[in-house]
Please model this.
Amino acid sequence: MKHLFSCALGSRLSRVISVASVNEILEDQGSWMGKILWVCDEHTRMYVPEGTDCVVLPSGEGAKRWDSIETILGKAAASGLGRDGKIIAVGGGVVCDLGAFAASIFMRGCAVSLVPTTLLAMVDASLGGKTGFDLFGMKNLVGTFHPAHEVYILAQSLRTLDDAEYRNGLGEVLKHAILSEDDRLATYLEENRGKLLSRDIVSMERMIVDSLKVKQSYVESDPTETKGIRDALNLGHTFAHALESVGNLTRFSHGEAVAWGVVKALHAGVSSHVTPVPFATRHEELIRSYGFDVDVTVSDRGRFFEALRHDKKKRASQVRFVLMEGQGRHLLQPLTQQQVMAVLGFSGVE
Amino acid sequence: MKHLFSCALGSRLSRVISVASVNEILEDQGSWMGKILWVCDEHTRMYVPEGTDCVVLPSGEGAKRWDSIETILGKAAASGLGRDGKIIAVGGGVVCDLGAFAASIFMRGCAVSLVPTTLLAMVDASLGGKTGFDLFGMKNLVGTFHPAHEVYILAQSLRTLDDAEYRNGLGEVLKHAILSEDDRLATYLEENRGKLLSRDIVSMERMIVDSLKVKQSYVESDPTETKGIRDALNLGHTFAHALESVGNLTRFSHGEAVAWGVVKALHAGVSSHVTPVPFATRHEELIRSYGFDVDVTVSDRGRFFEALRHDKKKRASQVRFVLMEGQGRHLLQPLTQQQVMAVLGFSGVE
Model:
């Protein structure tokens, strides 16, 4: 067990801890006074210690709905959790988001620890306090800010992840390489592609910690996304969420959609004379080198623009896109429908 | 329109404003940039201005469930609210709790204003940021802390309230008279019973503001109920919630249950040598003088104790009761089953 760093989110300090096994988590939780409920899905129940109170959710994005929350809340009540209780969520982004959301509303908030078991959840969902689920087909329409007490990084769990799911997480890592205040993460990704793609544990841990520290620098300055700083993490996401909506939330993985969206945002930045061409080119090439298809075309323009209009980052009824002025420097800017169409490779006529 | 005071809850300042009509609310909201959704129930829709986006919920405690939240969230999404949107809830405690809870989870939190139209909601639900709904028959099992931007006191709305509902709010006012740092509110209630029961507007406004200021002093020092200060407001509520559970949440009004619970807590305090007898006697007499039946007997002991065991104020698996050492001085203390039985007038044999 190794304490990596702590992330301050409002009044909550999230401890980020590297562990070699679930036993180390049990050891670390030994001093917790209240009751504990574990939450996992069908794929991650193997990580949950025997003899503990546990909720097993169905696997997949489809589970990200109120029913799952109600199941967790019911089990928490039945297990006698009080407001001094804790939920430990073990799984990918869906399980982490659901477990943390349930914790945020159970008796007006109990504690939560996260044990992300996918690369995407390790570098994204686990840190920063965002929780939520989907409603009316809209991603994370419902949610809260409820930072975890502990985030346990169990890098071992990445060894058995399938390739598509691993690449899913690399999409967010590549985004963090753009947002980092320096280009060390980008260079590391350029120079260690072989080791990272063959899942060398030491290389992966280095990548995860560097990626999380980029995220930390944004979320600490803006815990509830009200200052326009944290919005930078949304780079590529406005495009990505709309693409995911067109694909009914299932056709594209989040990481694939984000990698695609990041490239679209770089293009939009170049065409708006905000992003320097060499910067955009370097990162587009890096993203392509990790095997992402950034040439996907949007099949249903109508639904795509409808989804854009419902983007939850809207302020004063205007959707603002994250554009990059260069390494670690972003701005928020609306784009006209014509600009978006051009970036998507559509002609002006609908 | 008159700004009465502001209440600081964490980083949020709740402005408490006295208004003579809904037009004054519209005027005050004139500068709000985002979209607004009104939430009311069948009884309070008459207060909602025409031509505004509005959700009408069913009336009554039965509406305090997830379905209502989903209805609000659906209408908010359809009305194009963003995170800069605002929900204005007009109604009793149920509507205020639901509207504020929906606001707290819509896109991870949008703004909320409250227009309580019952005395109970004015002196209790509206200030302090508590939101929630019932699940699995447990009151407010689900909820958040999400203080309102504005609380509008429309004292006129109390003129048409039925007597039972008005007395419902008096239960909380009588509790605040005990918790106040001095006995001015108690004396005011003793000396102005006639005017208050005939709903003289000036007297009611004085009572509401004094009562809210008592609540303010507790919630400001402990916005999320983690310091044991705010727990004082729970005086009588552990008993009351259990009584309400036995009555299936419908037989007893909240204020009746609270008045009964406060007297039980005073008795428990006396029998534990915590509460001075003259203090307990003065307040029991005051409560009786307002027509509360504090002699209700619990019909189903089993369910009553089961409900006590699930009290959400539990810490380290122990239910703690609020006992009064005197005017405005409380302590939190567990009671044995025998002590509770004695206060309820049961013999030791079940």
Q: What stands out?
A: Residues 2-158 of chain A form a domain with the Rossmann fold fold (CATH 3.40.50.1970). The radius of gyration of chain A is 20 Å.
